[in-house]
Amino acid sequence: MCKIAARLTGIVTAWDDDTVKNISVAVDEDTYRRTRAPAAARQTLVSGLVREFLHSRATGENETERLKHEERALRDRIDRFDGTTRLTRDEVHAREA
Fold it and tell me: pTM here?
């Protein structure tokens, strides 16, 4: 069973041009060890997973909604896509020698 204790330290730092509060979180060794792999798969640290979790709880956003927002942001960055341009069969299967 995971036992988590958190304490607000009241330290304010600058991060991404916003002020944030640092918190201390204590978890048992097994929970920490099992959390490192999912964090690495997302290219973040355990603290990043905690930050995402707290943000999702505060905003009411679940994983599906988060992914939808991320997809919209990625689609907004695409500026040179034209779905009317078609490749010929030979162009699709062309290989460099």
Answer: 0.47
